[in-house]
Write a structure and sequence with these properties.
With 265 residues, the chain is mainly alpha-helical. Helices cover 69% and strands 0% of the residues. It contains 15 helices and no strands. α12 packs antiparallel against α13 and α14 packs antiparallel against α15. It starts with 6 loop residues before the first helix and ends with a helix.
């Protein structure tokens, strides 16, 4: 079963956007203050926040423009390079994204968000060996509120290596930490259970990967239909494949669902 992630879902699921700590108090001047009282770093942070919003709206050229201005104002602001890396990643330019992450981590090597992002990008580039260290660093920080992200990424890393025992360990950690948000952890647990012939367990995992924050995870919906099919629950499989056609029209996932539907007994 070869399924490709939908890129927008993956960005929000397992990458870490920088925490823009400047906030209102530090990025805006006090009432009546002149522009001269706002430091270059504060002005750079305003540009970074604008770039962050542009990335969330998929306006990547605009984001690059804001980041260029931010770098001219303060070239030592790590979030500039972190966001630029994510923008490159959104354009499927992994080498450029990784180069930006190296600069960002050179400025703040212990940042958990950046270590997770760097590890995820290395993972996606197929560099599993180098991905492990930054992901472990991010996952081991007890203050990291989104530790389910590096735990999910580590689970995927070991899954791709064919090491299912450590993969399950990290995926289960992710699920325990954020059961409603660990969509991809549920999804990969389903993969492992399906390989083990545990069709009912796989069905439950895939179903959880389509609930709450995960409702737009088209790959998980397709995987759930396939699990129903493998478990001989043909009526449920048929319904799921038809739902995919309705909810994800004109997509490759919908085409795959319709192809499988034609072979159901």
């Amino acid at each position: 079963m070869k399924i490709t992630f939908q890129r927008p879902f993956l960005i929000s699921a397992l990458l870490s956007l920088p925490v823009l700590a400047a906030g209102c108090a530090t990025t805006t001047a006090p009432m009546g203050a002149s522009d001269r009282e706002v430091s270059p770093r504060q002005r750079a942070m305003l540009q970074v926040e604008a770039a962050n919003a542009a990335i969330n709206e998929s306006k990547l050229p605009t984001a690059f423009q804001f980041l260029k201005v931010a770098q001219e104002l303060d070239a030592n602001l790590p979030s500039i390079y972190h966001l630029r890396a994510i923008a490159y990643y959104r354009r499927n330019e992994l080498p450029a994204a990784l180069a930006e992450m190296k600069i960002a981590l050179g400025l703040t090597p212990n940042d958990v968000e950046m270590n997770n992002t760097y590890g995820k990008m290395l993972l996606d580039s197929g560099n599993y060996h180098d991905a492990e260290a930054p992901l472990l660093k991010a996952a081991s920080d007890p203050s990291y509120a989104d530790a389910y992200k590096p735990h999910s990424n580590l689970g995927i890393l070991f899954y791709r290596r064919g090491q299912f025992v450590p993969s399950q360990k990290y995926l289960n950690q992710a699920v325990a930490e954020a059961p409603a948000r660990a969509c991809i952890a549920h999804y990969y647990l389903g993969h492992i259970q399906l390989k083990q012939g545990k069709f009912s367990e796989a069905t439950r995992s895939y179903d959880r990967a389509t609930q709450n924050f995960c409702t737009n995870f088209a790959d998980a919906h397709l995987a759930l239909g396939i699990a129903y099919e493998r478990n001989k629950q043909y009526d449920l499989a048929r319904k799921k494949f038809l739902d995919i056609k309705i909810n994800f029209p004109n997509t490759k996932i919908a085409e795959q669902a319709m192809d499988r539907l034609t072979y159901l007994p």
